[in-house]
Amino acid sequence: MKQALLTICAAALGLSVAGAASAAGTLETVKARGKLVCGVSLATPGFAAPDDKGRMQGFDADICRSIAAAVFGDGDKVDFVPTNINTRFQALQSGEIDVLSRQTTHTFSRDASLGLDFGPTVFYDGQGLMVAKSLGVSSAKELTEAAICTLPGTTTAQNISDFFRAINGKFELVVFESPDENRAAFYSGRCEAITSDRSDLASIRAVANNPDDYIVLPETISKEPLAPAFRQNDSNWGDIVSWSVWLLMAAEEKGITQANVDEKLKSEDPDVQRMLGATEELGKMLGLDNKWGYNVIKSVGNYGEVFERNLGEGTKLGLTRGPNALWNAGGLIYSPPIR
Amino acid sequence: MADVQMLALAPPQPAPTAQRLGKLSAYFGTPGNTIISVASIAIILFVIKLAFGWLVVDAVFSGNGETCKVSGGACWPFVAQKLRYMLFGFYPYEEQWRPLTALLLLFGACGVSMVPRFWSRALLVAWIVVILPVLYILMAGGLFGLTPVPTTSWGGLPLSFLLSFIGLTLAMPLGIVLALARASNLPAIRVLAVGFIEIVRGVPLISILFMATVMLPLFMPDGVTIDKLVRAQVAIILFASAYIAEIVRGGLQDVPVGQFEAGKSLGLHYWQVMRKIVLPQALKKVIPPMVGLFIGFFQDTTLVTIVGLVDFLDTVRSAIRDPEWQGIAVLEGYLVAAAVYFTFSALMGAYSRFLEQHFRTTHA
Question: What SUPFAM superfamilies does its record include (chain A) (predicted)?
Fold first, then answer.
């Protein structure tokens, strides 16, 4: 009996070891597997959340799809792995996932100590505060001795403490374990204010009985540039992730959309020709198909389309572009030239 | 002989009407009791009315998030729309008949195996040779033209059942071996068993899961990864076996040492004595605490969400956070989860009572 059990255990383990990644470069591993394995969040509406059919939807998920499209020419060749705050970096380090696209803030210590590198910032976020309009407050500095609801998490609580210490203000932090409790506590009046990343505040506000009764205060008390991450010391793979993201931004700048990408193949613009692989051989330099740019846009559209589809004003989140507008429209989204 | 004694000890039966009155008087005999009874009945009726109003009268049966938002009752369209996701998580939508078949097969096989009449060596062989491989092939695919589905896409109810069922089934023999080792006369074996049991019991399940999923891969050679599901499964098996070992040890201590000696004096080998004489008596005695442990572990598997596995409770939670329903259908989602966990826990409890009844023997 025991022998049989041992054999079964060994078989199960053996199976998964046989299917494990080789020590080769990530690109070769991904190509051999035939799928990109992308770590995302499990349930953050707008960034990564399953639809009714269990298909991952959202901004972070579309970043994964764009990388898959660059490698395979098909944005659906992705296996999404739900990761949580505790396991996300380890999943990347151990090779369980090829890229981490999970609302992860690019910080010095993560970059320097975790054995990973960050790609370009895909979303500029920052911590903010939301209050009821009836409170009559127009700036976070006017909050005195306010109870502030938040989720446990070292940076969120620390940022708010730092902010009030800097202005010598007093406040009381009320911490909730789950987002549902946190939101319910704020709407039931347990706290005067609620703090989180601005994108998250937008989604909290969206589910209020009357969203117009609430206002997100103008102060942004922390910088949260969200970027995809990959294992360090794999430049080729890093380039592929980074340029897949930059291509989305460059395509918006050049007016290439999912709908008109076929026409744009015949464009006279040399930049567009290079991006879509009509001339020169940029894709080959990355070890990809020369049509990689065309494939990315055909699969997910340009940066603006990805943003509007998942986070924009037509969605429940209703975010404006703000700092995530293109550089020539007053935002921070800027792609190095693709040439 | 036994029957005569029982009859002699039985009190005289009161007349039926007096018995009924006697029962009533326990509730309404004194003014104090009457007040408590009436108040309790009023509270029960009030709760039933509230629940019925919320679940049925004010409930929304068709529509979307907006219709639910304005009504004060339960939001059933949410459950209808999300049920498949809650049950099967990220398993590819077109392939979800496979986990469904696997679940039904598991339930069916368990149902058959629960009937003592069917217990035999053949059944055990059938589990190992047929049922478990079929379950695995159904879930993982890759054979007979089934699309391969990586374990990272498994989720929902099949994952919860897999973790708890396989975990407890494999932990059971391991736990028995540990209990025997702990009672062994050989010091090396005894010390090893005691060490393992005490270390595992001295650490929370969460930290063992963390070790298995976060620390273990860092010690592996480059590029070799053990499937996350397997890591969590092994952690659960090891953890459960330590607790099972202690329960079995309790049962072993309750078997008179004369039973063991009698077996030995008949010329039976150690394992024969254990298998045929001591363990059957010991295990029979520990059915209630064992089932209690099983129910606890079935619910403890929800902890795997911490290490990034998406079990049933986690799919329910993420369904609640869909922007379409966020803040609208929180209670409904948790009710579905509670109903499922309650059903299976209650079934296990009922089966435990049945087994106790089945094995009841009198030592007159």
Answer: Periplasmic binding protein-like II (SSF53850)
**Closest residue by Cα to residue A237 from A136, A92, A336:** A92
Q: Do residues A129 and A193 make contact, with C-beta atoms less than 8 angstroms apart?
A: yes
How many Cα atoms sit within 13 Å of A49 on the Cβ side? Answer: 22
Distance of CA B139 to the CA centre of its chain: 21
CB interface of B with A, residues 115-144, below 8 Å: 128, 132
Euclidean distance between CA atoms B320 and B329, whole angstroms: 6
- A231 and A114 both lie in a single domain: yes
User: Rounded to an integer, what distance in angstroms lies between the CA atom of residue B274 and that of residue B177?
Assistant: 11
For residue B31, count other CB atoms closer than 10 A to its CB: 8
Fill in the DSSP letter of residue B30: S
Give kind and range of the element (H or E) at residue A215: strand A214-216
Complex-level ipTM: 0.73
The pair phi, psi for residue B143, each rounded to 5°, is: -125, 160
The model carries a pTM of 0.80
Its domain, for residue A297, covers 24-124+226-329
Mark which of A221, A241, A264 sits at the end of a domain. A221
Q: What are the beta bridge partners of residue A81?
A: A39
Residues 6+ apart with CB under 8 A from B196: B178, B242
Indicate the DSSP class of residue B60: B
What is the nearest CA distance from A54 to chain B, expressed in angstroms? 5
Average pLDDT, whole number, for chain A? 86
Q: Is A251 helix (H, G, I), strand (E, B) or coil?
A: helix
Return the number of CB contacts < 8 Å for A and B: 141
User: Which residues in chain B have their CB less than 8 angstroms from residue A113's CB?
Assistant: none
On whether both A245 and A302 belong to a single domain, the answer is: yes
Q: Does A57 touch chain B (CB under 8 A)?
A: no
Buried b (16+ CB within 10 A) or exposed e, A50-71: beeebebbbbbbbbbbbbbbbb
pLDDT tens, residue by residue, A27-63 = 999 999 899 999 998 878 888 888 888 889 999 999 9
Q: Which of A:61-100 have CB within 8 Å of B?
A: 79-84, 86-87, 90-91, 93-96
- From chain B, pick out residues whose CB is under 8 angstroms from the CB of A96: 217, 225, 228
- Nearest chain B residue to A315 by CA distance is B323
Sequence-distant (≥ 6) Cβ neighbours of residue B135 within 8 angstroms: B102, B105, B106
Flag whether A9 is in a domain.
no
Q: How far is CA A71 from CA A116, B23, B50, B347, in A?
A: 21, 77, 57, 50
Cα–Cα distances (Å) from B318 to A45, A82, B178, in that order, read 9, 11, 39
